[in-house]
Model the fold of this input.
Amino acid sequence: MDDLEFRRRIFADPYDTDQALLTSASGNPTHQKLLDDVRVLDGRLQELVQSTPIPDSLREKLESVLDTTTAEAIDSVQGAPRLRQFAIAASLVVAAGAAFSVFKPSGNPTAEELAFGQQALSHVYTEAALSFAGGAPLELQQVNTIIGELGARVHDTDAMRGLHISFAKPCAVTPPIHSAHLVMEDEQGQVSVILSNSSPVSREFTFGDNRFSTTVIPMGEGALILIGGKDQSLEAYRELFTNSDNVEWAI
Done:
């Protein structure tokens, strides 16, 4: 079973007992780790959903975030109830002030803004096990091919050429919002940079858990999301990607 099919299946139902799925996991350490990680996350979200009542006011706010197109996109996905549960649970974390281990938002974000950031963090969790293996750095031209569809472009500057960009692919943090996910590697570890062409974010804010630190920055109609290790400094990447000499934004 290839990586794409495996991910699609376990995100729809991490407890699927299909023999082909289980064989793929047992025969591939990367697949097995991803399956284990998704099951742990699913268990945490189940606990959160069951233990946290949803106030009517919060439900109305969450529903207002999703337009008709988004709702149709979610309903069209196999396993949509489980995917919807992930999104709602992420929002509950935000509204209730709960977290997996540590959750310290700063910058006075709204519930909608924090939910968007948490969904980006959840995306990094689910991508990390399969996709972030170290490799040769990508050329800036390759990166621009990915992010160009979002109205963004990195310039050929010394600062940008000095980056070790090991991963770049389109993604959808919250369908139908289009995003691109880049991964940089430095001496401190890996940093995810997510560029989104649309977002509910109107202010910069930060939050984190026991593994990652996240900064969300509004950029025109879109957003720049930086995610690194919980003790990792993101300031250099913030300065790099918000500097018009290095990155051109048209969103």
About this structure: Strands lie at 152-154, 165-171, 179-186, 189-196, 205-208, 212-219, 222-229, 247-249. The mean pLDDT is 76.
